[in-house]
Sequence to fold (92 residues):
Amino acid sequence: MAKNALLEIKKSLEAHVGQKITLRANGGRRKTIERTGVLEETYPSVFIVKLDQEQHAFKRVSYSYADILTESVEVTVCGDDDGQVRITYIQA
Fold:
């Protein structure tokens, strides 16, 4: 069941490679970190985001698909026409 969930999240992210995304992650101690960048690549266990250079000290960050499944990271794809798509896993 969990393996299928991670595979579905990976497939939904693969469709948005090269697009601008917003990440909202838990920074610990009631801190929320919000980052913007471009979804650069997906791998079997993780995905890589190239961050906007003027806003962040790091060039790239990586997160696992389990982070999305457990909702410790929220990924929102920013569309061209101000439409946004949030990547989540919903059990049927």
